[in-house]
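#struct-help
A.M.: can someone run this one for me? Single chain, 167 residues.
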Amino acid sequence: MVSQSPRLFEKQRPANSPQRSGVMKGGQLWLRACVLVLFVTIPDIARSGPSGPQVPVDRQIQFVANAEKGALLFQNRCSMCHTTQEGERNKIGPHLHGLFGRQAGTLPEYDYSVDLRTSRIVWNAQTLDEYLADPHRGRPGDKMPYPGLSSKVDRDDLISYLEQATR
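D.P.: on it. Structure tokens below:
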């Protein structure tokens, strides 16, 4: 017959007996196992990178901008001075047909300020965004009587509209 020694629980252990160190309870073991699994798998996930095609930063404006809202912005804030269609005459400001890719201040039938003519700006989404945010930054003699459009979302919408309307 096998003799069984009585199992001593911590409360039953005599005061002079040594503590058992290095023994984990079930909850501690489970926690450490989970942490170990995370440390082993997370570096592989981080190395894998984002899935799917990457969109160049300069093209991301197309996914978030709303050309319809841009058309309303143009109608309410810009159309009293500018036009977008080919063959239309200049108003207070120059017509904007063919704007993208054109150097600022180069339409022969409009009298631009010296500051804009000598600015060497070539209009694209980025340069137009900077200009619309503050038309007078770095150009104190600029003739445009517009203080700027502070909302980045509104500028993106307006630029999205202009990219389509000025072709």
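A.M.: thanks! Residues 58-165 form a domain with the Cytochrome Bc1 Complex; Chain D, domain 2 fold (CATH 1.10.760.10).
D.P.: also worth noting: The mean pLDDT is 80.
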